Amino acid sequence: VLTDLLHRLRSLVRRRDVERDLNDELRYHLECLIERHTQAGLSRAEAERRARLEFGGFDQIREEHRDARGTRLIDDTARDLRYAVRQVARSPALAASVAVSVGLAIGANAAIFSIVDAVFVQPLPFPDAERLVRIESVFVRLGLRMTETGIELAQVPTAPEMSAAQAFTHVGSYTVGNANIGDANPERLSVATVSPGVFLALGVPPTIGRTFTAADLAHTDRLAVISDGLWRRAFAADPKVLGRPLSINNREFSVLGVMPAGVRFPATSDVWIPPAADPQLAAQVTAPTFVARLAPGVTPQAARQELLGLLQGNPLTQQDPRSASLSVTPLRDAMVRDLRAVLLLLTASALLVYLVACLNATSLLLTRLSGRCREFAIRRAIGASPLRVARQVTGESVLLGALAVAVAIPASWMTLHTIRRVMPSGLESALPATVTTRNVLLPLGLAALSVCAFAVASYAAARSERFATLRVSATTTGGRWWKTVQHAMVTLQVVGGVSILVFAAALVRSVGTLTAVDLGARNDAAVIAEVTLPRAGYATSSDVRRFHAQVREALGAHRVVSEAGATTHLPGDPNQILQSFAVTLQHSGQVSGERAADAVRLSATPGYFEALGIDVIAGRPFADTDEFDGPRVTVVSEGVARAFQLQPRDLVGRRVNVGFGGNEVLAEVVGVVRDVRMQGPERPAAAAVYLPFAQWPINSAAFLIVRGPATARQLISSIRAAVGQVDGSLPLYNIRTFEDVRGEYLEASRFAMTVMLTFGLVASALAGLGLFGVLSYTVRLRGKELAIRLALGATVQAVRREVIYSGIRRAFIGLTAGVGLAFTSWRAAAARVPGLERLDPIDVLIVAASVLALTFLATWLPAQQAARTDPLGALRAD
Amino acid sequence: MSEDRLELPQGTLDLLILKTLAVEPKHGWAIAERLHQISNATLDIRQGSLYPALHRLERSGLIKAEWGTSENNRRVKSYDLTRRGRERLDADLSAWRRLNAVLAHIFEGI
Known about the structure:
Strand content of chain B: 15-25%
Number of helices of chain A: 27
Number of strands of chain B: 5
Low-confidence stretches of chain A: 139-156, 316-324, 467-477
Distance between the termini of chain A: 58 Å
Largest sheet of chain B: 3 strands, antiparallel
Oligomer: heterodimer
Largest sheet of chain A: 10 strands, mixed
Helix content of chain B: 40-55%
Strand order of the largest sheet of chain B: 2-5-4
Number of strands of chain A: 23
Low-confidence stretches of chain B: none
Shape of chain A: elongated
Number of helices of chain B: 4
Radius of gyration of chain A: 38 Å
């Protein structure tokens, strides 16, 4: 066996030597034979003839010898490949267009597949992750109590209480917030407060040190577990990091453990600290979410039922009508909820693009193959089997497939990076950093599929009867078979292109609608920076008040800043939690009965309304004269006036009760402003009561807002300078313009829209090109027929009309089918995936019209070509 | 070709080559000559078909080849039996003889 292998190998590697040796051997033999015959008395010529006869065909023996070498298949394949390379090199434009279109389509699929894979398929970095669930909305069942400084839970269920449920093995509660991490150069990082149960439920041990336990918390809660990333960044991957201090909001914590790389829970947290270890974080969030590990064999539904029963015993919750909102969701579902609709659409359109590209390439190849039918006919005539011919053609397909893969691999990498760059912030952590090896399998599979499609088409072409005969002239119209296949493929391409375009149009519409929504705040150019005052340095409300007053004063010194303000809640963030409360109008002579309005409570400094462009309808905005010890004032939005059934100007000067929970705190309404959509364009505008920051200082994250006749960059440096002047240790974060804030909300939809539009346009362009190719080729084939008809008196217009009609007909079938497909699949998807709106018939009409226009363009040139057919020339040719 | 020439049964060419090489190493032409002489020109062996057979035998390790020079100073490839070739020859020959004897017995006996 070994000698056998060595021989084959030698034959392969040193083919030329082996062939030369064989030739030498055979020639020597032949000469000896001739010699013998001449010695026997034959003439030289006769001796040679006899010798050759006895010896047998030289080439035949060489072939047999090659067979005996056992490298036949490889030899043939190599020859087919050489042939393929020559064929492909002969029409580089075709090769390039096939490789690029199929390659790009495969690349896009690979990129999107690797995202789908990372988000939906690859396991979470926790053992038995399918048993992890997120429990939400427990707090609404327990009643909320509002205080002057935030929301407090009347009774927070504790993790031990929840774990009384048999359905879970471990339960932990967590909240997420942001905090300033580090001393000298504080970083603003996502910090999670977690109960010890969270670590137990997740089941991932730290790589260094340990996680905190209930016993630890009895002594101190200044303990922090940090992520691998933070450990490398802030501690230079120090293996003796345990016990080292870590400053969180200017308070010192000690590092207790380091979690493994890749473990960041929830979302992108870098630091885990015990619940309530940082009062500031506790103020930032409202209520904890729970993560739990289901006992083996327990379903989330069963767990929910048990939990409901457990909470039923709590008198506070019995009356709560919102009990249905308690949810127990598998952790992965909870994490990918927002991505699902977008990814589904992207995957579908990527596959459609691939389909269109593949059909396009196949149809191009077929067109060229049928142009080579004479070549095949000759090959068959001199004895090549259909299989042999098909194998040669397959060689080309394989080569084109390889070229496509060569394009696809860098393309997938680039697509992924583009997607990562434009992907909505916050979601990018879910995305893979690179296309992994396992995800290369998909492009390879798709490439193989394309090769198969090419090859099957080639084989069918090579087998088809007309190739076996020379009777058919190469210039007649293609056979029925060819025509049917080509037209079907063009139609399918139109179907693919139209479907994607319809999806894209729907997204354009929803993005457009949301962009056009008036938030109530008009100044898109306002620059916004967030700042959080650490409690350590700003313990009292007068500290907070002084800080904001000083910053305002410092900003006033900057010439580029015309207005500067601050607030506690920025319009446009759909995730922010607003406190709604009842505000009542003070009784007075003209008004009878109780007048009350539900309103959100916001806090703002002078300059806020002007800086953000919120119109004042009546009265005045806040002024510097609304001081801490001055008379209590308020600005309300028009929604409050509406609820009071008063004209805005009539409300100015009236007194309203803005106190919480039965406390009477009367404030005079000094102004009425427009309603603002605080939670983004999809939520209605809420009635709001604004209280002056100076009278109601709230120590939480604040948004500094400036506007001025300057560029965003200049305004940003002004804010930095002003804050730095007041307190150099404060980090500013999330610096952006109001336009960005509005944009953030639309990022996901806008991103999907851009990708879909690109896909749709590419697919439609390909379909148009396909139609153009097929039609112009048909016109070329029909030259003789058209010539005869023109010679017999057909008008040029009639010929042109017929060609255009034949093209439009295909496109129209494709268009109808495409619209139908888009409609049904959209409806099916919308039923399962929240966030997809209904398709707008007008959009569909626009798509249909543009596709028809494109078709007309694609048919026009071939029609012109047909009309220009020169009767005599066409008949004389061939 | 005359009618008294015999077609070679399938698979016997290998055996013939091995047997020819049993005495001494030979090159291709010499093997052909030897077969021609011994069979008194009654065997119809297409000279050229020798070479694929030689290559096959070489590949299966029954013979080995070596480049040398001929009597008239030409570069020739000469073939020799390997140990395995010799064993195969012995085995095949005895099998052939037994088969022959049995066949002869049957043909004569009936």
